[in-house]
Fold:
Amino acid sequence: MSNDFDPSVWNQRCVIAQGYAQGQKIGAVINLGGPTLGLIFADGESQWTVPLGARVRVEGRVVERADLPVFVADPDEPAMQGMPVPPGTDLDQARRRWVIEGARASVIRTPAQAEAELMKKIGERVAVAGILWSRNGVWWLSHEGVDVHLAQVGSPDAEYHGEAVTIRGKLERRPMPRIDQLGIRAEPERAEAFVLRVDAIEPHPIWPLEPCPDHEPEDDSDEPEQFSPATRGSGDCQVTVSALLEATEYRGPGPMTPALATSLDADPDFARMYNSESHGDHHVQCHYQVELAHEPGKHFRWRSWFTNTLRDRTPKACNGMAAEIAEDIIRTTKQCTDLAAGAYWGHTLEPM
Structure:
């Protein structure tokens, strides 16, 4: 655990943590970009129910536990289950760890969404963050649940194995050995995969813990009962989100956009993975009425959506998003200069 990270300052306090979902024999942990915290889920689960490697948000209370199954190995005795430690180790200290108990988790971005974003950047120089792994001399980065092969001269230092890093390089896509078959088959099958030509490997920034708001995690009182309009921008680009027209929750993948359709058509393997993983997703979709100051008398419809796979939000959340939506419209339309600029990605102002 990083020397700069001290969970004891949060002892018995409710926190919000952001990181990567990782699994260990002792149970689920969250990797904060280097340091890790164990998780004791509120629903009694001991392991993640979301894809490993996904970027997640966790809310719960930080406590210290003394539950690690440590023991001093005796070469004259049968092997034991647990975590062996050298003779002379203080077992009371060795079995201690910091965890978030009563943990409730939500996915910030699903692997399917992360993969779709990577598809847009093929051929570009990028910075990709995640957990670095190796097996049988093959190195790859688990980027928010998506495996990215590394191509470079030589291999990373062994100390990088299992560590959070940021890797810079050129992103490509081509057939590569299947990672899930490494160590199982002498010659793994090859399948289309992301490949990063490495320029540099850098430390991953640590996501700091944040205090919880002044409400219990299960209380949805932060989702307003009534819609509040909002206006953002100035001059020639003033956007008003005046009404919530519709707010619904549905099961399945997010809306089909031209960008996503192109990615699915171009890569059958990605399409199969996307369809198999996303059928159990949940989304909330919000439709708003919008007015533009430079288009007097006209009304537009704007659609927004967010992932709700762990069901930790409700359609009422749409009521409190007007200001965020107005700012998003300003960015997407390039300061109101191109109302169709976001059409390829599914973000359009439709005349009403």
In short: The first helix runs from residue 91 to 94. The domain at 111-203 is CATH 2.40.50.140 (OB fold (Dihydrolipoamide Acetyltransferase, E2P)). Residues 215-220 have pLDDT under 50 and may be disordered. The first strand starts at residue 14 and ends at 24.
